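chain below, 149 aa
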Amino acid sequence: MKKTGTRHKARKRAVDLLFEAEAKNVKATQLIAERREIYPTDDSVGTMYEYTVQVVEGVTTDAAQVDAVIESHLENWKLNRLPAVDRAILRLAVWELLYANDVPIDVVLDEAVQLAKELSTDDSPSFVNGVLGKVAELAPQVRAAASAE
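prediction:
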């Protein structure tokens, strides 16, 4: 069992927030704001890692593009038919693949598969890996274009 670092915990927290936001039909950024308001008097809501905030804000801001990229790489599936936790993991990972230039692509893939192992069904790790493997092929071009802007 490998040691889980702060970034892993931050990603897991981001998946939790994305999942909860979808279930409650609110923006995940709204949940972060609420938790930050509560935290000084009730630390049971947990600390909010900066990376969690960065990723959740990114996924929220770029939601339409992130979902379009996922949808275009699903074979015989629709995004809304996936388990909600898999959607949250894929959204996080696709955002990182496209926009988090400081995170190596193989790290994004490893982390997403690890989150799927921890949080989802037995079939999810290989499914998540398959979808993200296809998206990862585009990531270098997208990252380069984003850096050039």
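The chain is about 70% helix and 0% strand. The mean pLDDT is 92.
thats it, cya
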